[in-house]
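Materials and Methods. Structural model of Cytochrome P450 71A1-like. The 126-residue sequence of Cytochrome P450 71A1-like from Nicotiana tabacum was retrieved and submitted for structure prediction as follows.
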Amino acid sequence: MENVKAIILNMFAAGTDSTFITLDWAMTELLMNPKAMESAQAEVRSVVGKRSFVSEIDLPQLNYIKAIIKEVFRLHPPDPLLIPRESTEEITIEGYIMPPKTRFFINAWAIEKDPDTWENPDVFGP
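The predicted structure was written out as tokens:
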């Protein structure tokens, strides 16, 4: 029973920790980029109006906020390695032959910082 309790506590801590870290990075990026912060505030004010809170029906209209969230995940992924994948058959990747049942770890951090893919990979640009 102690093992089950420890596993549940670890899962809870992992979920809250990654959420906190992501929110922390979002606030850091917004504080370091005042124009992005101003644009986010303006969008929320225009969508929410005089109400004191954002409701679920407002979410589809918050396009800039969505862009901020995606950009935070790109620059600061909560888990830089994606879930491992396993090949079902022999494949060749850039000249390397991979037999069936080869396990692959995908480095999301490297993909999201690739200068061949992103014009300014280290710049926060929602």
